[in-house]
Amino acid sequence: MKLKNLEMMLQRLSGFQNPRPSLEQYRTPAPLAARLLFHARMKGDIEHKTVCDLGSGTGILAIGAALLGAERVIGIETDASAVLVAQANAELLGTDVDFITADIKDTSLPDRLGPCDTVIMNPPFGAQKVHADRPFIDLALRLAPVTYGIFNAGSLPFVHSYTKGRAEISEKVGGSFSLKRTFSFHTKDVQEIEVEIVRLTTVPR
Ligand code: SAH
User: What's the 55 CA to ligand 1 centre distance in angstroms?
Assistant: First the structure.
């Protein structure tokens, strides 16, 4: 599948019906999701792998991983209404993804899920709840040797220091993200947000 095809397929997916600001429910735009997934596939991190999407929302990253040949895909999302949309989205594109309604802070998750090869995630940036991204990073590093995360541009020093001794930033790719007006406190109809796609690899202890 070509990048453009993946992007067009992901473009068809539905987004959040009633996005909740406290959960930072911003859907990853299809071009950015496709870019992350293509890159991950090129690195050998998708095909025939077990892939976990943390904070899977309406499923765009998880479903894209399934389309690119992941063997098993699991999405974890706290909002049950988003999970319903994600399940309908997966069906629309004929993909098989297990969406689980759970809080990523639930300490029983690693045992319930078993090991993953690759984590993909667009975690809350912590704009509404400070440090909301930390438990996502913590769980990702426990679950998988390789993680792809989308972070606000400028977050790299934080990601680097927060993961020191546990993981290395093995790659970063810049990108931008047009955020449509989602919440009443947004002042522009469309805002470009600069982001970084970061690939983290855990270091053996
Ligand atoms: N992965 C989706 C959604 C990104 S928005 C996409 O790429 O489009 C971040 C998602 O994380 C939201 O769906 C939000 O509901 C979810 N989330 C926030 N805190 C969470 C938590 N503690 N546990 C599980 N999911 C959470």
Answer: 3
